[in-house]
């Protein structure tokens, strides 16, 4: 369906929105129907970008990589990214949403709520088509300031929301007040989010969040949610979770869902990972909760990426990422696309050829945004209700 300017009369704004309508044959991930094809997906994936005042837009590296991985997986009816008001250049004729970027996350959250209603109830199934026959459902992957906006909107979106991933949610003291991240975290981790599968992904070198503080905050939120669940349902589950949280929980590797083209048959989520949902990697790994609401384990999860900062450009400790299983989904995706060896570098560069001498080969540094995207999409596939 491509890029279009979507007018939201209730907000008095138009947003630059890029919509990809997925086909079932783009990837089925082991969910065939009786006819051999997966039943039509009804979940729209919305991917959100960082702060516009720091040049954040839907062309951000993390956003683009998540969109690429999710478009190939076949689990979503549409994959959508958009420029928040005033972002992407601020000129709709050149690509971008008109106006100036907002200084208030509450304003962008209101825009998100209005856009979500258009995506779920009004957006045509295909180019030139009519509105959907039935209301769709929504999943959100939000990065940096986008995670602040999504967190602020959790309560309003909750009835239609199936899962939410917050990448690099900035929880430092300054961001809590200046960006409104404190209110976003309260909504995301508190009663508005209870029972919703939620994943926080953060690098342990993140410049805007201390990984240790995030671990403690998540452990406290898990305890509060478990207590609310036990008190409300006698331990059974208004939220559909089980078990009390542990502050020292370890990282589970999400089951990488094999991409299309891997032997002509996509493996079911869970088999290729070597760790079943709820299983844990080495105890030396960064803290994370296992499982999710309605699919076993906790609804609020954390995964800390060693050697990675807020921007996901590079990694200082690729060995640690591999040791705790955070690269498995990316390697499975790379193998399915026919990349030799599933190596993480973009490509090998012959240093001698560059110098005109011939001889040595240098390995380009790891770019973790692609690995993050594959991890996030595999996590979503594991958490979304079966079709």
List keywords for this structure.
single chain; 387 residues; alpha/beta; Rossmann fold; globular; AB_hydrolase_fold
Task: Please give a structural write-up.
It is a single chain. This protein is of the alpha/beta class. It has helices spanning 61-73, 105-121, 145-152, 154-157, 173-178, 181-189, 211-233, 318-323, 328-336, 351-355, 368-383, and strands at 2-8, 13-21, 43-48, 78-83, 137-143, 161-167, 198-203, 300-305, 348-350, 361-363. The protein has a single domain (2-383), classed as Alpha/Beta hydrolase fold, catalytic domain (Rossmann fold, 3-Layer(aba) Sandwich), CATH 3.40.50.1820. Helices cover 30% and strands 16% of the residues. β1 (2-8) and β2 (13-21) form a beta hairpin. α1 packs across α11, α3 packs across α6 and α9 packs across α11. The longest helix has 23 residues, at 211-233. Residues 25-38, 235-294 and 339-356 have low confidence and may be disordered. InterPro entries: AB_hydrolase_fold (IPR029058). Residues 345-354 have a biased composition (Acidic residues). Residues 245-270, 334-365 are annotated as: Disordered.
